[in-house]
Amino acid sequence: MTDPTAAPAGQPPAAPGEFAAISIGGLEVWPPVVLAPMAGVTNAPFRILCRRHGAGLYVNQMVTARAIVEGHRKSLELAAFAPGESPRSIQLYGTEPYSIGEATRRLVDGHGVDHIDMNFGCPMKKVTRHGGGAALPWKRDLYRSIVRAAVAASGDVPVTVKFRVGIDDDAITFLDAGRIAEDEGCRAVALHARTANQLYSGTADWTRIAELKNAVTTIPVLGNGDIWEADDALQMMRTTGADGVVVGRGCLGRPWLFRDLAAVFEGRTIPPRPDLGTVLDEMIEHAELLAEWMGEARGMRDFRKHTGWYLKGFPTGNEIRRRLNKVASLEEMRQLVGGLDRSIPFPEGGMRMVRGHHGAPKDVQLPEGWLADRDGAVALPRGAEQLVSGG
Fold it and tell me: Contact at 8 Å (CB) between 120 and 162?
């Protein structure tokens, strides 16, 4: 296992030809880096900001299949892409084949989507208690039918799946999930190397990624979990044989991580860490993009959660953080940060400071009798096909 708070072991930059682009259907992804879909985070403004720092594949936040089929307004807004954004990649959630197939068709035909990732990794109670997310691969026949429906409806657009190691240590699902996805025509699989029981606590077990790579041999295998610095990506790929990495919490408040990743995969030295002034400029640009995308009032509400991630580790004081958590306008934010010392250096270990989801492991909430058997017909509980997207 890795220790997400410990510095990586000084990985040398990639040698020429050491790593290859990820081939996902007709998409060639270089460097081999994917932005993980994160609810309420990976909207168009955040993807624009990250993409400016480095190439890769940038996935829109999750939408639910039923919401797309029923034309739910909020979900359609979440599914929106920036003008000219390419490739258009989105994550889809569902618990039964019909809505997954129909939603896939609508995303491909009506939204011009170039890549669909399927969510079988969400560990949240409101998802797993209905048999969705990380709970669903336990039911192999249901999982297979859903994957098959998406692939059949997608035409030439590649479908990938993302899943966890399992529900807990007694209900491991990732090897079956990977093999089934490969059998059904998915173009890549990604493993978050934690169980649902772990949530986002502890450390990701990268040995599981190596196991999956040995089991799934004809399509790319991507690793996810504890990529806080560019060296982590190199270490993961070198020790597991993974074809690429999926970056989640590591880029929260640190969108320049994609710049660092591009550097190491191209054999270059990682650029110096930004000082506080550079980080503040990034913050303001992010807020401006959100304000332009969704209106200033709504955009600033959305931006509040990002302020703590950007300033993590900087000695700015509790009062400025408290006021930024209530900021209501771009001008107010500019005034609040305008008095800070822009020359303050980036904090030691600042890339590895945990941001986003954290906390202790929790028992996974499942439908009654869910673990009794793995195959055969499944009676999903009422509410399994959620209407509201966004995680």
Answer: yes
Per the CB < 8 A criterion, the answer to whether 37 and 117 are in contact is yes
Could you please report the per-residue DSSP string of 141-196? HHHHHHHHHHHHHSTTS-EEEEEESEEETTEE-HHHHHHHHHHTT-SEEEEESS-G
Smallest CA-to-CA distance from 141 within 351, 374, 387 is with 374
**Predicted pLDDT of residue 215:** 98
Cα 68 from Cα 239, distance rounded (Å): 39
Instruction: Indicate the SS3 state at residue 318.
Output: helix
| Tokens found for residue 31 | 């460097």
Q: Which domains does the chain have, with CATH numbers?
A: 22-268 (3.20.20.70), 276-349 (1.10.1200)
Q: Is 122 a catalytic residue?
A: yes
CA 352 to chain CA centroid, Å, is: 17
Q: Which of 50, 122, 186, 251 is catalytic?
A: 122
The residues, any chain, with a CB within 8 Å of residue 27's CB and separated by 6 or more, are 57, 87, 114, 115, 158
pLDDT digits (tens, 9 = 90+) for 223-262: 999 999 999 999 999 999 999 999 999 999 999 999 999 9
Distances (CA, A) of 29 to 22, 222, 232: 5, 12, 19
